[in-house]
Automatic annotation (TrEMBL):
Pfam families: CLU, CLU_N, eIF3_p135, TPR_12. It comes from Geranomyces variabilis. Residues 1-33, 160-180, 621-673, 1216-1269 are annotated as: Disordered. Keywords: Cytoplasm. Residues 329-578 form the Clu domain. The keyword Cytoplasm applies. This is Intracellular distribution of mitochondria. It comes from the Eukaryota. GO terms for biological process: intracellular distribution of mitochondria. One of its GO terms (molecular function) is mRNA binding. The gene is CLU1. One of its GO terms (cellular component) is cytoplasm.
Amino acid sequence: MTTDTPQPPAVDADHEASSAALKETSPAMQGEPEGIRELDFKLHVRMPDKLPSIPLYVSARTIVQDIRQAIFDVPDVNGFTCFYLTFEGKRLSEFTELGDIPGFSPDSEMVLCPEAYNDRELRVHLTRFREIFSNFGSGPTNAGVDQGSSYLRFVERREENGAQDGKGKGKTKSGTTGPDGIDAFEEYDFDCKSHNLLSDLIPKGAGDAEKVKPLKSLALSSWNPAPIERRGGGDLLYLRVVSLEGTIFHLTCSVSGFFINSSTDDVFDPEPRAGGKAYHEHNIAFCLSKASPLFAKAYSRLLQKVQSRNPLEYLASTAAAYPWAVRPRGHTADESRALDAHLQFADQAEGFGSHDWNEELQSTRELPQTTPQETVLRDQALYRVHAEFVEAATKGAVAVMNGNALALNPGEPGSQMFLHNNIFYSLGYDNREAFEHLGGEAAAHVAVSKDVDGCKLVADQEIPDLYTLGTVVVDYMGQRVVAQTVIPGILRRPENADPLVKYGSVDMGQEIASDPAFHTLAETMAGALNLAEHVVRDGKGDEHKLYTSLETKGIVGLDNRKYFLDLYRITPVDAEFLDETAVKEDNKTAAEMPYPHQLPLLRPELLKSFYESKLRAAFDEANPRATTEAETKKSAESGVEKEEPPKTDGNATETPDTEATPESAAEKPKELVIPEINITWNTDAYTRANANSATAAADVAQIRELSTFLRTDALNRLVRECLYNNPPIDGETLVRRFHARGVNMRYLGKVVKLAEDLTKNAESKSSRVPSQYFLRLCRQEMISRGAKHVLRSLLKETPSYLMRYCVARFLSCLFADEETELAPFQAHALYNRIAVDKYAFTTITPKIIHERVRREVACRFQFTDLPENFWTERSLPLLRSVCLKVGLQVEATDYFATGPPSSPDQKQHAPRFEPHHIISHYPIAKHHDPRATLAEQALEAAHAAAADPSQPAGLAIELHGEACAVYEQVCGPVHPATARAYTGLAMAYHRAEDTERALAAERKAVVVGERVLGVDSEEVLGWYMNLAYFEYLTGRKLLTKAEGSPKLEKERKERSAGFGKALKLMRHAVREWEKVCGGDRNLEGASTDGNISQMLADLGQLPLAVRFLERALETQQQILGNAANPTVLTSQEALVRLQLQQGNFHAAVAAQKRVCELLRAVLPATDERAKMAEQLLNVITTRAVDEAKIKAAASSNNSANGKKIKQQIVAQKAAAASGSTNTTKAAAAAAGGRQEQPPSIDQLLEFIGEKPAKASSKKAAGRAKKNGK
């Protein structure tokens, strides 16, 4: 459902297609009116006070509540928040579907009717008014600055600001990028000197406060709260307003609306102001507009600004991310902030303790899913409850750490538990000494995180009658807090009640429960997760059969639901790693340092990969003929120019239709045998619980096989993929890549060693040397993780009011040389009464921090070969990684532009980071969102349709649109999954050559991605580059339409504007990309350089285009090697064309020689492509020789030969202009025939299939000439 406000053209079509698909799959639609069953339609909602009606796109399945929310979100309704909807004079229930309303048709109209206010509705209305008042700026209760920011609108309209390209504070010569952005790369620094600068990270204007102020002041009146007799009369709140005219008046907020009363600052008179000047209105904006003409004018301007923004920029979302580098905001006097705080805290206080989180989560899981629409509604309800729970749990965890929550056991410091807002909190410590034999606190720290993963894994199976707790793990101030929903009856149980635990053990196996009902339920879960039934013995020696691990507990609540808790050991342990790092009898280890704990668990992705490998092996064994045919086909299809990853068996076994015969088609189903394999894992294997089992040896052997598979197959495939293909760009992407392949991050050290061995082997064999970027990134990730643990240990002992001092001191030591002597720590004079020196961070030095980081890396990753000065390599990416992992926001300033500053006495260095550089520390919550089942299925089907050439082109678009619609309905438009669905839809449109719709969908992906993934996330920067490319294609399309048009000049200006916007977007993406990459080059950067070169060439900026393409080619050759490669060959051919376009024939000859060398290496001399390349080389060489002769002759002014050659040049240009020469003659010359005149540049370009370039304007040609100096 969308509004009819200005939207990208793709939006309405997406929703229509997806909604229609949803309706057609629902049998419940058969009983609805025929007129509204087929397609979406436009519904008009009539507004009060003669306001224009609001058009909304809806479907028969739309409920009234969704329509109400859409009206609430539309900024041009002037803030109507308290209302109800009617149809034919009857009030509609909010949960009624349009298809169920009697007499409703696509031509029907709803009416918005004002509703009476209460305290809650008044807070909602005033909050919305204040949001519009601040143009939806950050609220006062956020844990950080600029949460959920998007920079796109500032990038598209901004001028280049500050510290550009490492030239001090240098700007371009003109001081801007030009009015249309054409000069975005004019003074680009190819040495990437600015990759360590932070001051130009944020676009100009981003984060600035709104400058349009409709009022001088809006605050709570001193006459609050309303007297009891006035509350009985309907008064809810009093406000004090100072208008732009300087008039002070007091506003009454009543159940019927807003009016100006007769009170002053000294006299209380709540009656409406006399003389008809009370201006009683249901909307506060209307009331103030009548009272203050200047307010009406300024508020109108503000509404225009709000309406011009993309709603995705400010829609509320619980998934919004915090940027790690921000600009500090100046703090000014504003009485309205107190009103904001009052509204928000009053709303929180009213809802505090009103939720039974466990009941809400479990009851939504029980909602029916018999139809697609029921599934969507169920997923939507579950996601909303889960998001609210995560938000409440995070706030409660901060309250626990700040001492604002009362403990249930205050007499037990260190193992306290809390019940806050009906959520149970415990610290991630080894409270019951359950992990003492596994590593104590370190093992407990990991177990609570793995418990979240286990809850997600079990909940995704959707097993009836099996329940898990809502669980969130929050990291804040160095502590790990576990927040869980409360099982009914678990906190208060009668003394004679039955044992709480029905399955598993709570005392490490001394007493074990194995209730038959739970065992049957666990059997269902075991079938989905490949868990083996195994025997364990309790302290008395009695045997019990379990499917889950001993630590997993089954509990029946007073609601008669069966819950499984402590699911951290839902996967087996890593046996090989445990043996490698175990402490021996002589207190030595097989590894370099002992691992912190003995709970190294395998990932579910690895188990899935292992299962699939076993299934493939069984299939190959059962179908040897099919396997042979697949290998033959794979060999036949692999060409000399293809360097792709090995295809999967599913693709390899497909046979082209042209080769299939009726006999083979009939025989194939009979030959193929689908094997059945039964692989299960005993999660208690390799633990003390399995020590006395009769199958212990077999269980351990099976677990060891899993571990061996990880260390050989999975690791090798991961390393080769990252070395020889596109490596991850930043630490976050690296983690996702590891986890997707089933590899734990503890293998970072081993991955680096494997990669180094592959590199050495490649160098010794003089073969392709893999990318070094991956090695540097892995080292950086180990360092940042080690630094994270060191900083957490310091924060754990530090009170929150000294957090900024602790973090600043740590970062200063981390990024300083070991011999550097930093100035001693000095706290503010305000802390003189507090013993600050007792905290550990006050005595740290660079040497101490570096040693601790090295020790953490050696301990956790078994890696000791860090660079000597590791803190100087990739300093800015390392700072970014530490901030994102710990939850820090720092000031965006240039920390690494120079060395550390010196103190006045020159003997000691002042810290690089000061406390004021640390803006905030926000909590990091780990949880897993519920699945949007239908959206995932639609995306999977869309990918399959896009990969199948036999499917219609529109099918992938339709399926992507359906996925977007479902994600919007379930998770909301501002969510990571929705953003990825948007970009998938954009690429589907791009493949269908619908550039305008691709541009609209990609713009949505960029805005949402910035808000939820981070403004400099690798994914978001890639989407920025896609958006720039789509803008570029749109500009080219404009020029194509304009050919032959009498308005050609106007169309060219629009084309240049589109190109300028594309270059601005690309410039921003490249700047952020270089900072994330630390200035290192990679294949993604080379691809970007190629795209930039193409854009600049179309604008006539040929010298600059050549430089970008040469850098792309250099990067590709460094990573891919000098051997023949299709990527290198394509870039080399593009370089030839660019050199010809700018008339540099000598450079074109050198580039074409390289093309011929690459082709000779892979193609026979008789190949048509190789012959054409040699012919073109001859043509270009001839032209280069002629040009050299002309220049040599022209240098002699008195030479008769020189004059003759000049005359030939004039004649040649005239002939080229009149079209007397043609490509046929050029081809004849290329074939070896003589020609009186050498081919012109345009003829050469036509010969190689390239259109001659035309500068967009004289100004573009002038810039190209200047760039060529």
